[in-house]
Design a protein that fits this description.
17 helices; eight-stranded antiparallel sheet
Length: 858
């Protein structure tokens, strides 16, 4: 939220008009005269020097009550002696520091200076207990030493005064505050030569110009406290030549304690005030409706800490349904608070956490983000320019899962990938000559940990020390730097760089948003109080899930169903029901129960159980929703439980089943959020098939590829892993053995060079193998024929040698149907190119598995 008010650039306020002292003159005094403006300005300058300003810090009624220790520690005598190099060296030895660890100038004063200072400014001969000073005494110099900043800073202003001969009664106003220890004070001094001797310093009860005062029942007081709204202006020559002015909100907490709770760089008029529990913490808060040159505004101060936790302008009030009236603001905040306080989940927990954090650190900004794949947002808390934290609500508790400092080392903040559980940041060093892209992921414990990073070098590290030297930097600036990129795992340093790079590129393909938000506390409460907006795209599916509409199988039967003797699992189950009918969800479940009961040996239809779940999809990642309904029941042989998933889409105003797939033991399928389906079918322990299918944004099913794996046991005890890849959909009714399928594109085999134990009953090679054929012919082997055994071994080793001549030893080789050898990379490239050709992007490929929720149990 942008602030319409102008904050003062300096931390203190100065009141300008001379006010009459609240005490009366003592009788019998000699003739007094008012000080001129020049004389007042002179005393202002004098009592803002290190020598004199300490006398105004605390009240005293006589010189014996002066806190000399505090005055001297504040540097009252320090200006007399800036230290020599020898003195500094001796001082550093005493405090056990190096010169690089000292950031302030070193000053000293002699022990004899203390007595002289006390005598000149009080007339007393008593010297304070110097051994209590934090300044270090070095006997060699008979002096005290310390690092200290001599400040040329305006702290007090002399606003009025009178003199009688050499006696002065001066009224000072503190710029740091308005009351308590910062109240106006009445200092009485006498002049002795060039020095001023202290007589007394009395703190006064201030009388303010242009002040509004309000009593509010806040801050746990038994009686209401007064909050003064005071305007002040400094019109004398300031150090920057500009007048300083502004309005302060000052809370009078008790008789002496005051607290400035807000400042503005302009005059402010208070239109209305209120004390009411605006943030639902069972404590009244202070609310001001104000008007200034910037327009109207609402300020809210927490009743416990008196920290400002929200401000609203006209547009921001309109967002919560309020205007510039107390009644409308109360009503709007009650509505927000009721929505939050009635929630026992994350909303109430986040509101309480945000309030607690804001009481400790001012200026925090908040955001609600979706880091993981559930429907509960995470809370981001940003201390701008310092650090960002992310909290998650799990198992009824709020837990910090991520903390990241920023603002240094070229790090400008953090990003997250929505619903992916991934964070990232970018940092630079040495003016961009070195940089890091860092990715973080959610660990098994639910916390975020550094996962992997790219380390970039925009220069050639000629000396190999990992940092740019002046010469290396010069070469880089001249465009001769070269540079390189490295990929590292933060989880396991033994992971090959190629695998780390692949994971890095996967994370890089995700969308990313800023972790930091721009909501203040009340905006966060407003956001938490909102009811989730119903996605208009899911209304038609919600109606089906609620039993208010039906789904048709017309599209499926025309475009997907394969009518043949050897039906696929999904088609086999769908053929059990009447696909000419349209079904409600309960009707669909009942139809399957009827079909299964008819073919079962169950005594009752109620013994047939089917559970239903649902998940919304975004097929093709186009933002349009589809629905997946998963039925869990006896969708398998032998009445074993299996799952059958229907993908449903609205087409031409009607819900249609556009695809279906099973999920059972031996035939596993999983769909991700963007409609990509991964399948794996086990034929036996040594043979399985995998495939990838895709439903695009139009709801069209597209075959990706099919990969056949076969672990062949060779005659000499070796295993050869063979894969065959179809890039076109194959006919399910053809021969199972892949070499006889006409549209096979690629296969690869992995040769293992170790000889296993030889079984004399194994077949052997009849002749020297024809290596360009896809198979090898065997004949039965006579176990007594040892010569043939050796022949088999030699022949197989010969084949391994033939293959290894064309690739690195032990590498997986690609072999086309015609027998020609290719590299393994070509095999994987063929897969990737196939997916790209059917519209599968990196985002779709890396989508999260669909998250199913229960809708009915029967």
């Amino acid at each position: 939220m942008s602030k319409k008010r102008i904050k003062l650039a300096f931390s203190v306020l100065i009141l300008t008009l001379a006010l009459p002292a609240c005490s009366s003159d003592d009788a019998g005094k000699k003739q007094e005269t008012e000080l001129t403006e020049d004389e007042l300005a002179g005393f202002t300058r004098l009592f803002n020097t290190d020598e004199y300003k300490g006398f105004l810090r605390y009240a005293f009624s006589k010189p014996e009550e002066i806190d000399w220790k505090d005055i001297i520690e504040q540097g009252a005598i320090a200006q007399k002696g800036k230290c020599s190099e020898e003195q500094i060296d001796d001082y550093l030895k005493i405090i056990d520091k190096d010169i690089d660890e000292v950031y302030r100038p070193c000053y000293s004063f002699k022990k004899s200076d203390v007595a002289d200072f006390v005598k000149r400014h009080s007339g007393l001969d008593r010297v304070p207990a110097i051994e209590q000073f934090y300044w270090k005494y070095i006997k060699k110099y008979e002096s005290y030493f310390s690092e200290y900043f001599l400040e040329d800073k305006m702290v007090y202003k002399c606003i009025s005064g009178k003199k009688s001969e050499n006696r002065y009664v001066l009224r000072f106003q503190a710029i740091d505050g308005l009351s308590g220890i910062h109240s106006d004070r009445l200092l009485t001094v006498t002049k002795a030569g060039d020095d001023y001797v202290m007589v007394s310093n009395e703190f006064l009860k201030n009388c303010y110009y242009d002040k509004q005062s309000f009593e509010l029942d806040v801050y746990s007081n038994e009686t209401p406290i007064a909050i003064d709204v005071v305007y002040s202006e400094l019109d004398l020559d300031s150090y920057d030549g500009d007048p300083r002015y502004g309005t302060s909100f000052v809370a009078n907490i008790n008789a002496i304690a005051k607290k400035t709770i807000a400042r503005f760089g302009c005059k402010v008029k208070v239109l209305a005030v209120d004390s009411y529990d605006y943030n639902a913490d069972n404590r009244k808060d202070a609310v001001f409706i104000i008007e200034s040159d910037e327009g109207k505004q609402v300020l809210m101060f927490d009743g416990e800490t008196l920290c400002e936790f929200a401000s609203y302008d006209k547009d921001e009030l309109a967002k919560i349904g309020a205007d510039f009236t107390i009644d409308s603001i109360r009503s709007a905040m009650d509505k927000i608070n009721n929505a939050i306080s009635g929630d026992e989940g994350y909303k109430k927990a986040y509101a309480e956490l945000a309030k607690k954090e804001l009481s400790e650190i001012k200026g925090l900004r908040f955001n609600l983000i979706y880091v993981d794949d559930d429907d509960i947002p995470e809370l981001s808390i940003d201390a701008p320019g310092y650090h960002q934290s992310v909290y998650a609500y799990k198992n009824g508790e709020v837990k910090e899962i991520f903390f990241g400092p920023y603002g240094m080392h070229g790090c400008e903040g953090y990003y997250y990938s929505p619903k992916k559980g991934v964070f990232s940041t970018f940092c630079t060093e040495y003016a961009g000559l070195m940089y890091d892209y860092i990715y973080y992921s959610i660990s098994e414990t639910g916390e975020v940990e550094e996962d992997c990073y790219l380390k970039g070098f925009n220069y050639d590290d000629l000396d190999g020390d990992g940092e740019p030297s002046e010469e290396e930097e010069r070469l880089a600036q001249e465009g001769k730097g070269g540079g390189k990129i490295e990929y590292h795992s933060s989880l396991d340093e033994n992971i090959p760089e190629s695998e780390v790079k692949a994971r890095f590129e996967q994370y890089e393909s995700y969308d990313a948003d800023l972790v930091a938000g721009d909501m203040d506390y009340m905006e966060l409460l407003s956001e938490l109080a909102k009811e989730p907006e119903e996605d208009p795209g899911i209304a038609v599916y919600e109606a089906f899930l609620n039993g208010e509409s039906t789904v048709s199988f017309d599209y499926y039967m025309e475009n997907i169903f394969t009518d043949c003797e050897c039906l696929l699992d999904a088609d086999k189950n769908i053929s059990l029901i009447d696909t000419d009918k349209e079904y409600t969800l309960s009707g669909l479940v009942d139809s399957f129960k009827d079909a299964f009961f008819k073919d079962s040996n169950k005594d009752s239809r109620e013994d047939i159980h089917i559970n239903a779940k649902y998940s919304y999809l975004d097929c093709g990642a186009d933002g349009e929703k589809e629905l997946a309904v998963e039925l869990d029941g006896p969708f398998s042989i032998a009445e074993l439980h299996a799952k059958l998933t229907f993908v449903i889409k609205e087409l031409a105003g009607k819900l249609q089943v556009i695809y279906a797939f099973p999920n059972r033991e031996g035939n596993e399928n999983e769909i991700n959020e963007y409609g990509l389906i991964w399948g794996k079918e086990h034929v036996d322990s040594e043979v399985y098939k995998t495939d990838v299918r895709y439903i695009n944004s139009d709801g069209k099913y597209i075959f990706g590829y099919h990969d056949h794996f076969d672990r062949l046991y060779n005659p000499v005890g070796l295993y050869t892993d063979e894969h065959i890849l179809w890039l076109d959909e194959y006919d399910q009714n053809k021969e199972e053995y892949p070499y006889y399928v006409e549209n096979v594109e690629y296969g690869y085999c992995s040769m293992y060079s170790e000889i296993g134990s030889y079984d004399a009953t194994d077949p052997y090679y009849e002749d020297e193998p024809d290596y360009k054929k896809e198979g090898v012919h065997y004949k039965e082997y006579d176990s007594e024929n040892a010569e043939n055994t050796q022949l088999a071994k030699e022949a197989y080793l010969h084949e391994c040698s033939y293959l290894n001549d064309r690739a690195e030893y032990g590498a997986e080789l690609v072999r086309r149907v015609d027998g020609s050898l290719k590299t393994k990379e070509e095999y994987y490239t063929a897969k990737a190119e196939r997916l790209r050709s059917i519209g599968v992007t990196g985002k779709i490929l890396n989508g999260l598995p669909a998250a199913f929720e229960v809708i009915v149990s029967r």
